[in-house]
Amino acid sequence: MLFQPDIETLPIEKLRALQSERLRNLVAYVYDRVPFYKKQLDAHGIKPSDIRHIGDIHKLPFTKKTDLRDHYPFDLFAVPMSQVIRIHASSGTTGKPTVVGYTRKDIDLFSEVVARSLAASGCRPGMKLQNAYGYGLFTGGLGLHYGAEKLGMAVIPVSGGMTDRQIMLLRDFQPEVMSCTPSYAQTLAEEFVKRNISLDSINLKIGILGAEPWTESIRKQVEAGLDIDAVNIYGLSEIIGPGVSNEDIDEKGTGSYIWEDHFFPEIVDKDTGEPLPEGEFGVLTFTTLTKEAMPLLRYWTNDITNIYYEHSHKRTHIKMGPIRGRSDDMLIIRGVNLFHTQVEEVIQDFPDLSPYYQLVVTREGNMDEVEVRVETSPDVDHSENLDGLRGGLRKKIKDNIGLSMKITLEEPGNIPRSEGGKLGRIVDKRKVYS
Ligand code: DLL
């Protein structure tokens, strides 16, 4: 179903005209209101009047996650706090998160693009959505919640985890739709088998899966294990949250429509930043054409994928393929974004630990596990009981980052050093990218 047929099927020339007008307004808007953008444009010798057409977007400089960190928490906001009605955040590369603000109009836009995404996924007004994305600073929970309400669904706001409760509600409330990470959908499918619960006792038809990379083989497993259509939803907090792009249930496996009247995508070379031709793989960037509180110009997502038009399909908007990888070293662990530098910051607080460490990531069943292998300082005696040190590190990581990790204390010299002395900090043994 098309939630906004006029805009979703807008002829491409009209879409370009709309994007051009929005881009012109946006550049003037941020130049006037956000000192960072004024400085950036001035430094590149660009005047807002130089940007006439959406094709001029390549003249603009990129915005990166480090720019958000450098302006923590609110210095990229283009409106006074009196116009901000919500703040979300996601992991940054340090202990400080990446912050996003929304005006009332931004929240309406967020709800609109999620409603579009849900409609494309096969959801209809009157269906019940069991929302198992986390509620909180993470955009998944509230994002799906408001979008589903906008579409006219009945939302069951369970939040993440709590498998017993999820299963009870699936059986008692009979929702047709569930939203969660693909790995959690795998866990649920397995629980039904383990507990010997028949799929006849539930009424699920659609899974709205995203927030982490997944593959066609995970899709097959989840579709068979829960007897559903598993549909991809993609997004990132900086741009708005979930609902930047979404698959259509009838076009599964052919890519996700990017709602490009609001989020203008480009694929650029990861080393040179040069725009790449349609279909080629590179770094995905987005320019938010309509956001008020924290608009972003050419935001460098670090996600690697490609974008292409499928002219025979239902909508005119461009599609993106599945995420193939990252151009930085961000990990996604059970749906939570993680940078190894966050762990490093915690390790630094322990005088008995050295800065030599490695994160080993595995997938046990459907659960991501992280083992922190860290060397102790030279004066720590490994014949003594080190449970206190191990437990202390585990607790501080859990408190600061929100993830439970296995801690292995290593004797000095045990963590491999590479030739140049640079450490391979991450060993990711999962196969999460297709
Ligand atoms: O994960 C927003 C979201 C919530 C999307 C619920 C979908 C569903 P962040 O926490 O900021 O926001 O993480 C964004 O997660 O840059 C991708 O690397 C990854 N990601 C999100 N969706 C997908 C997906 C939310 N469908 C980062 N496939 C992004 C692959 C995804 N990766």
Describe the structure.
This protein is of the alpha/beta class. It has 2 domains: 1-325, Rossmann fold (3-Layer(aba) Sandwich); 331-433, GMP Synthetase, Chain A, domain 3, CATH 3.30.300. It has helices at residues 5-8, 12-33, 35-43, 65-70, 104-120, 139-151, 163-172, 182-194, 216-226, 340-348, 387-401; strands spanning 84-90, 98-103, 128-131, 154-156, 177-180, 206-210, 229-236, 241-246, 256-258, 263-268, 282-288, 299-305, 307-308, 319-320, 325-326, 331-333, 336-338, 353-364, 367-376, 406-410, 426-428. The strands form 5 sheets. It has a 9-stranded mixed sheet with strand order 4-3-5-6-7-8-9-14-13, with helices on both faces. Strands 10-11-12-15 form a 4-stranded antiparallel sheet, with no helix packed on it. A hairpin with a 4-residue loop joins β7 (229-236) and β8 (241-246). The two termini are 28 Å apart. 5'-O-[hydroxy(phenylacetyl)phosphoryl]adenosine is lined by residues 90, 133, 138-140, 210-213, 232-237, 241-242, 301, 303, 323, 332, 337.
